[in-house]
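Blinded run. Sample ID left blank on purpose so nobody reads anything into the name before looking at the predicted structure. Input follows.
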Amino acid sequence: MSAPRAARARRDPRMVAAACAATVMFGPAAAADDGDIDTARAVLQAAQTLCPEGILDAQSIAARLDGPLSGFTVSNVADRGPPDAWAFRDLILEDRARGLALLIHATRAPAGLRRVVFESHDLSTARPVMTLLAGGDCAPQHARAIRYGDDGTALELVLYAADLATVQAVEPLNPPVPDGTDPGGVTVAHIDSGVNYRLPQIAARLARDDEGRFLGRDLWDGDGRPYDGDTGRSPFFPIRHGTPVASLLIAEAPGVRLLPIRYPRPDMTRMAEVVAIAAAAGARIVALPMGSRDPDDWAAFAEAAQAHQEILFVVSAGNDGRDIDAAPLYPASLSLDNMVVVTSADAFGRLAPGSNWGRASVDLMVPAEGIEVTDYRGARGTASGSSYAVPRVVALAARLLAENPDWVTATLKRALFARAAPPMERGAPRVAVGWIPDPADDL
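Blinded prediction complete.
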């Protein structure tokens, strides 16, 4: 992939609400009267009239641009699949006078359309404004809009019903960090898509200075609010990966001092800055449940990590079901003395289906399938994959370091490896050290 994304479980965290009430972090369902959203709504509603004939036959779309779509011209049509039977079609329409762009993403079915996504963007600011999802019958299913502040910051994600008028929920995108005091404890930097720092269990463990100022950073947006959301795939459907990972870390090491850092997807050379922020805050352990196939993404990180031997970096092996000795994944495939690479096992000491391995590149397996976590809404559920092996090993390392604060990184790493036993699966070992049956067995 061209840029890294926060590594996810093979199955995205399955956030099944528990019997106990969740701390839902959505706002009230209220009407939205934003001018940009109103304009986008009108454009998207008009765009539905293009479906299905105008989308299936792109040559005829120009003749259908009337009414609210007057002034739009087709700027691009891109198909993927056989020329006479495309599987995916992307259309871009632009109205330069009004500064609007209409993007249409269609998926084809044998007898017509399977799915259509409409998006409205502001050409002058390059901001996505609203999206509408429709089924193969072109009937709207639901819509989402982004509400911006005066400075252009994305503030809220507004979730609409199929009528594009009824607001079902409002999700914050960059809320203020709650006030608090530093909790003390072993400092763990968590590099991910951010966290929902408004959840009480996370807010209570946030690293702060003597004045109570939060020390976490968002190197994606460039501010001090690393709120959970990887928008690399879609600004309207952010991936909320960091919160469930952090929830597991805190559950198994409740005394940690947590330093969340939202990773700098737009410029991965800033990973050196990430390491510097962690070091300045006194982090002894860094949780890094992410990766990509491009070694250039991780060159700055590798150099910075090498320079900070006082920090132990715990990295996920990934979830592509492959040997990363043969097909490297970074940073897991880097050769760093102060790094531990972990992957997911089942409860019986066998590599979990879909988890990566590597006799030279991967150090440890730990059970990380069907693990209980808390999602960014505060709902309890389960998650699986090597991303969730990371917080289990980090929590173990933090507990060991809390009991032995004078340990250097090499000593801490040896202590982790000493907990490992031979894997229970048949055949040649697929990790360098072994598996830890229960990283939390001393709690």
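Unblinding after everyone has recorded impressions. Helices lie at 35-47, 53-56, 200-203, 242-252, 271-280, 299-307, 386-403, 409-418.
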